[in-house]
Design a protein that fits this description.
Layout (H helix, E strand, L loop, with lengths): L6 H5 L3 E5 L5 H10 L6 E5 L20 E9 L3 H5 L1 H15 L7 E4 L3 E4 L2 E13 L2 E10 L24 H19 L5 H10 L7 E5 L4 E9 L5 E4 L5 E4 L3 E4 L8
Parallel strand pairs: 1-2
Antiparallel strand pairs: 2-3, 3-7, 4-5, 5-6, 6-7, 8-9, 8-12, 9-10, 10-11
Helix pairs in contact: 4-5, 4-6
Bound molecules: biotin.
The site of biotin has 21 residues, from helix 2, strand 3, strand 6 and strand 7.
């Protein structure tokens, strides 16, 4: 597939490297960062053989799906870099809207999933490494364009079921432009509050009970908001405020969620 940036991405100073097949675009982005790449680079493919997901899981990218990573160098530090996942989620929702998917069918699930009709359509993985000039960040975005993986422990969706005319190259050009736009608003973290509010306007489960497994503990409460660092804020039944930095969200008070 021939991947090309949209005009806004090009105007914003981005470059692109397309691959027929690659292990992981995130791994390649960090490899390039170690070799001194200055950033503002998209790495993109429609087939990964060793895709990486959150919490050390694998991410499947069969041929025809979209796997892309943005390599950025962020001087402001890891807390600011961590908010880029919200930029990516919003950019993808915007791109999907331009591709013809109705906004009401799309949702953003904390921290970084994009849902279609409540099913996982896309995942986002941030990986960062310190460098002399700041942090090299790979913002990996994987979208089930042609097919959703089978056998996942959560409901999944593919774009092909609602917009079969949109292939990975078309979605990529829209995504790269939408990213440039939302990144401009984000403004190296200074505009995160605007991003945060736009993200909350599309958030799935806001105001409803959720269960979060952090790896160590399971926390339940009402999903109240996200804070200025992008952390999840829950309110327990007893009125206590709980702040969660990382974890997997399940909607409802699921009794069987594992830590
Ligand atoms: C998740 O677990 O939900 C995050 C999945 C992130 C997958 C993308 S695909 C492009 C980039 N390269 C990778 O190896 N992973 C990310």
């Amino acid at each position: 597939m021939e991947f090309a940036l949209g005009p806004k991405a090009t105007a914003a100073g981005y470059r692109v490297a397309g691959y027929e097949t690659i292990g992981s675009t995130n791994a390649e982005a960090l490899e390039r960062a170690r070799a001194g790449d200055p950033g503002r680079l998209w790495l993109v493919t429609d087939h990964q053989t060793a895709g990486r997901g959150r919490r050390s899981r694998a991410w499947s990218t069969p041929r025809g799906n979209l796997a892309s990573s943005i390599l950025l160098v962020v001087a402001e530090g890891p807390a600011v870099a961590a908010t880029l996942g919200f930029v990516a989620g919003l950019a993808l929702v915007s791109a999907l809207g331009i591709a013809g998917v109705a906004a009401k069918r799309l949702g953003l699930k904390w921290p970084n999933d994009v849902l279609l009709d409540g099913r996982k359509l896309a995942g986002i993985l941030l990986e960062a490494e310190p460098r002399e000039d700041g942090f090299a960040v790979a913002v990996g975005i994987g979208v089930n364009v042609a097919a959703a993986p089978e056998g996942m422990p959560y409901p999944v969706a593919s774009l092909a079921t609602v917009a079969p005319q949109v292939d990975a190259t078309r979605l990529f050009a829209l995504l790269a432009d939408a990213w440039a736009e939302v990144e401009r608003i984000w403004n190296r973290g200074r505009g995160f509050d605007v991003v945060r509010k736009a993200w909350l306007a599309q958030a799935a489960g806001l105001g409803h009970p959720v269960t979060v497994s952090t790896g160590d503990v399971v926390i339940t409460g009402t999903f109240e908001t996200i804070d200025s660092d992008g952390r999840l804020i829950l309110r327990s039944d007893g009125g206590e405020r709980r702040v969660v930095s990382a974890g997997d969200v399940h909607f409802g008070m699921a009794a069987t969620v594992r830590a």
